[in-house]
Structure formats: C-alpha cells, structure tokens
Amino acid sequence: MLDSNPPSQSGGIRDLGLDELSPAPIESAAAFSLARVVAVHKDRFVISNGRIDVFAELTGRFHYGAESAVDLPTVGDWVRADFFDDDTHAVIHELIPRKSLLRRKSAGKNTDYQLIGANIDVAFVLQSLDDNFNPRRLERYLVMIHESGIVPVVLFSKSDLFSPEEVEQKLASISDLVVGLDVIAFSSENGAHVEQIETLMKPRKTYCLVGSSGVGKSTLLNRLLGRNEAATQPVREKDSRGRHTTTHRELMRLPSGALVIDTPGMRELGNLFIDTGIGETFSEIAELERQCKFNDCSHTNEKGCAIRAAIERGELSEQRYENYVAMQREAAYNEMSYYEKRQKDRAFGKMVKSVKKQKKGSKGHY
C-alpha cells in the first residue's frame, strides 16, 4: 500500500497521480468520491482517497456486470467509491476509463488476461546479468509493454558480479533490441547507478517493475523507498532462480513523490495482439519484410528475400527472427475464436491417431 506518511493536505488526491489523468465524465460522478486502487488481494481491494487507505468491495451490479477480468479494477485504476463508517470501509461503484493497461496472457491454454497495472506511464523491465540474462524473454516483455502504449525502460541488475568489460559485452549483445530505449546496468548491493534510475522517476508519475523472480525487483524497490518494506529472498545458487517474494500487486509512493507498482515475478509470458506490440518491438523485421521481392515470401529460400539476406550478412540474428515468428504464431492462435481452436485441436488429434494407426498396421506386414 501507499507510504504510511500521509500526503500533504495541499496535494491530497493529486499526490496519487491525478494530474496525469483526464477521466471521462461520469453521470454519477458528483455522488461518489474519487479514489485510486493501491492494492489487490485476490478479490479484495485497497483504495486511497489521498488521506487514508481502506478496504473496499465492489457493488453487486459492478461485480456481476463484468464480462472479463479487464472490466474489474486493478492496481493503479481510478474509481468512484462511497466511504462509510468514518472512512473505515468503502464500496466501489464505477471504474474510470484507463489511459493505459498493462496485461499479459494468463498462464495455460485459456485465452484470458491477467492484469498487471493500470494508468502506468513507464514500465521498468528488470533482468539480472547472471543466468537470468535472456534476450528472447526481454523481447517478450517489450512486446507486452508496447502493446499497452507504455514507455519501456530496461534495467539490468547485479552489475557488481561482473567487470565493466563483461557488462559492456552483454549490453552490446542486445543493442538491436533496445534501440531508442533507456538501458541501465545497476547494482542494489553497492548502489551503482541506482541514482540514475531515480532521476528518471518524476513526482506523480506512475511506474511499474516487471521481471522474473530473483532479478532483484524487491531489493531495488527497497533501495528506492529508503527502507526495507518489500520482502526479499535469496536466489538459488545452482540455477540463479529466485522465489516469488511479491505475492500481490501494490502501489507505493517513493520519497520523491513518484508512484511505483511492484508485481509478482512472471514464470510465463504470452502476447495476445500482434498489431502494436510486436510491430514496435521488431520494427526492423517488419521493414525488411516490405523489402522482399515477393509479397508472399515465406522467408525460407526464395530469391530476393530481404530477411534471409540480412541474416546472412549478420545484420539480423536467426534467434531474434525465430522469436518474432513464434510470437506471431502465438498471437494468431490466441486471436482465434474458441470454436476455431477446438476445430484445429481436433484436426491435429485426428492426424496423430491416423499416423499411429498407420504405423501399427505397417508392423503387421513384416
């Protein structure tokens, strides 16, 4: 939840980032108080009116009228609410239209969303420079953030474990991924370049930290807060993997006045749309596709294929292109209707059974 020190009376609700919001008019706006969701614990919400944080629940109409998770409040959302019993409890009536929504595909086969945070200005993508360093995973985070219309900043933790030359080598290896982005290698252990991160964070702006478990999100957050509020756990030595220390999403206010959403580590990333996120993250590949000699180029062995030529010249890595193709396929599958997916899965199942049957029959001829 927010800093235990209440905001100044002169700031109040505006200290929660209201200056960055232009809510659409709501008919019943005058009847309710404006508040921001600062924490979500499963189906329970904590909201703040700039003076106090209180637990809140949804009206029955709101709850049962929601068609999917996207229609429900998440951390960072602005809502209209009633405060009761001397501001010890609240009821949420309406969700104010968001200016941004960071979300990912839920784990598993279901095509559904898991909401990460709303009304975010900048997303810090954290990876560590040890075994967690993974350009392909970084690409997936960037696609997710670009889809949401949020500005990404890339942070690499644990720089104290490597020499300056080794750090530069790792950063050079992902130079084609982060063109035009702020990239900072830092250490929460010795504080190296943490101040550089702080200079990017402005009062009343909303930021979030995303990344896998064990990359140091909670440790960095404690540094930024100036106290140990976010729980941390050691990383397993054998595989550099961390345990999930943040178990829910929470909005915190830094001493500088910036607002930060801490999020649980993500084991799986899925991307639902291909128009914006993938196009922005892999913009050079999209440009190369337009340069191919044939409009229906499969980018395998056709003459005049700009993509194959770029790979052969070393201007585009094979792994980056394969990740681009894989995400396009995932997004296309996720956008199919439920019926289409069932038909496709059944057709594949029939093909597998047919192949097994043929193999079984062929054995009887020997």
TrEMBL record:
Residues 118-267 form the EngC GTPase domain. Residues 109-269 form the CP-type G domain. Transmembrane segments: none annotated. It is found in: Cytoplasm. It is an enzyme of class 3 (hydrolase). Keywords: Cytoplasm, GTP-binding, Hydrolase, Metal-binding, Nucleotide-binding, Ribosome biogenesis, RNA-binding, rRNA-binding, Zinc. One of its GO terms (molecular function) is metal ion binding. Its cofactor is Zn(2+). CDD domains: YjeQ_EngC (cd01854). GTP binds at residues 157-160, 211-219. Binds 1 zinc ion per subunit. Monomer. Associates with 30S ribosomal subunit, binds 16S rRNA. PANTHER family: SMALL RIBOSOMAL SUBUNIT BIOGENESIS GTPASE RSGA. This is Small ribosomal subunit biogenesis GTPase RsgA. It comes from Prosthecochloris marina.
